[in-house]
């Protein structure tokens, strides 16, 4: 019956179009809906293009250096510094995605280099550890070369980006010694109420000293990533003797001055405040994992800290002020940042020094990059390379979507090291780095 009524109504509407109450859809409405869909799609595409920075060009690194025979040889021998750096097309031009992928993924396929873990007792009762990896091939110059490597904040030899770089370097003929920041390894307990800090060079110095004694003929290449870059530049600049037997040094993605950086870390520009929160949360986890060693007991050396303030800390600066500065007796956060930053020591470094940063690094504000620029303009031994893309320790390469296992960062460090080794081999014997033969170093070992 209902169906019959519908048929009659429809027939009536057709026969008497002017007398019916049935409303028809305007032909303009479908076109309007299609236009709205196109506008929505266009808006989404525009946002993606802006967020992914797809319109940004690719280019070779911006290089600042002085015209010297060594630097001319370097640029000829290390093509990574002069060729275009091409990140993955769809996401590689976003510094945030490069940084996020480094933080979560580390590297695409992480190898497992085999090494030996060394334990070095320190004068204050702490026990420093580093992992030693022997070369897997003869070096192209035939020499004995050791890379001494300082990872980023809270990092160690088991991090994927370190393992990838070590494996690549071993295959190029380098021995690698990787510092494990004091307290960073989850399965190694602290033996004193102290852990790593922003600029403490004690553990790195102990590792370098061990290598020099254990391998009296080896020459050193000093490498630091992020916080590690600050440590190695400070180490080389605070004592001239630390530069003996060092062929060259590389620092990647460091900020040079913690005092200047603290203001930028509180800004929301480039989501820097959010990254600050994430780093602080990670530091809290590391500190609290060693709670008993740092704050427990009745030792006069234990750290006097308000743990309730640690729990509620939302920035690295709050943790540094409440905890980290006290490990070395600094009276204020300003004093801690002043004395621990390499900006006050780096001008004393006279060995060849490559400083690498990325313009889209969300952790390092552009204002901090005046430090390496000025240094490279004044000192003949310094080359400053600034890439357009790469994020913080990302520097992934690839065609469209999937990155390659080795990054531009891995290749440029080894390429720079190869060039410096070749340059040193060509020098007259009287100009080569002096070597000495001290006695064999002592220390406990453990296979890793």
UniProtKB/TrEMBL annotation:
Assigned GO CC terms: sperm flagellum; sperm plasma membrane
A Pfam match: Abhydrolase_1
Domain annotation AB hydrolase-1: ranges: 146-398
InterPro entries the record matches: AB_hydrolase_1, AB_hydrolase_4_sf, AB_hydrolase_fold, ABHD4
Active site per UniProt: 226 (charge relay system), 361 (charge relay system), 392 (charge relay system)
GO biological process, one term: sperm capacitation
Gene Ontology terms, MF aspect: acetylesterase activity; monoacylglycerol lipase activity
Top-rank lineage group of the source organism: Eukaryota
SUPFAM superfamilies listed in its UniProt record: alpha/beta-Hydrolases
Disordered: annotated span: 427-448
Family the entry assigns: Belongs to the AB hydrolase superfamily. AB hydrolase 4 family.
Protein name per the record: Abhydrolase domain containing 2, acylglycerol lipase
């Amino acid at each position: 019956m209902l169906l019959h009524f519908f048929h009659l109504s429809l027939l009536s509407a057709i026969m008497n179009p002017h007398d019916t109450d049935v409303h028809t859809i305007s032909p303009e409405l479908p076109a309007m809906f299609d236009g709205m869909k196109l506008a929505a799609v266009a808006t989404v595409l525009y946002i993606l293009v802006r967020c992914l920075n797809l319109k940004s060009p690719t280019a070779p690194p911006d290089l600042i250096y002085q015209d010297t025979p060594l630097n001319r040889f370097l640029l000829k021998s290390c093509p990574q510094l002069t060729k275009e750096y091409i990140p993955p097309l769809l996401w590689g031009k976003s510094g945030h995605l490069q940084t996020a992928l480094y933080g979560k993924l580390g590297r695409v396929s992480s190898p497992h280099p085999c090494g030996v873990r060394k334990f070095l007792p320190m004068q204050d009762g702490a026990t420093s550890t580093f992992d030693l990896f022997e070369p897997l091939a003869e070096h192209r110059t035939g020499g004995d070369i050791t890379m001494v490597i300082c990872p980023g904040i809270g990092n160690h030899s088991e991090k994927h980006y370190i393992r990838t770089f070590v494996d690549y370097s071993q295959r190029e003929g380098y021995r690698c010694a990787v510092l494990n920041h004091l307290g960073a390894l989850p399965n190694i307990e602290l033996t004193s109420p102290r852990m790593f800090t922003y600029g403490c060079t004690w553990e790195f110095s102990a590792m370098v000293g061990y290598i020099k004694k254990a391998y009296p003929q080896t020459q050193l290449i000093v490498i630091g990533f992020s916080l590690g870059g600050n440590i190695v530049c400070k180490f080389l600049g605070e004592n001239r003797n630390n530069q003996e037997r060092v062929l060259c040094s590389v620092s990647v993605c460091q900020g040079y001055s913690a005092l200047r950086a603290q203001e930028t870390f509180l800004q929301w520009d480039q989501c820097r405040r959010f990254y600050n929160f994430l780093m602080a949360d990670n530091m809290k986890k590391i500190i609290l994992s060693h709670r008993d060693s740092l704050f427990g007991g009745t030792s006069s050396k234990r750290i006097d800290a308000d743990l309730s303030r640690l729990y509620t800390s939302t920035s690295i600066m709050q943790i540094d002020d409440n905890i980290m500065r006290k490990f070395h007796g600094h009276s204020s956060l300003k004093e801690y940042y002043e004395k621990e930053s390499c900006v006050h020591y780096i001008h004393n470094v006279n060995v060849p020094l490559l400083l690498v940063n990325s313009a889209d690094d969300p952790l390092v504000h552009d204002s901090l990059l005046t430090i390496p620029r000025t240094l490279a303009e004044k000192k003949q031994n310094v080359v400053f390379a600034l890439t357009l893309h790469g994020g913080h320790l990302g520097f992934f390469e690839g065609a469209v979507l999937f990155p390659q296992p080795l990054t531009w960062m891995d290749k440029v460090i080894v390429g720079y090291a190869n060039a410096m080794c070749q340059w040193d081999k060509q020098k007259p014997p009287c100009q080569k780095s002096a070597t000495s033969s001290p006695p064999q170093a002592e220390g406990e070992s453990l296979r890793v």
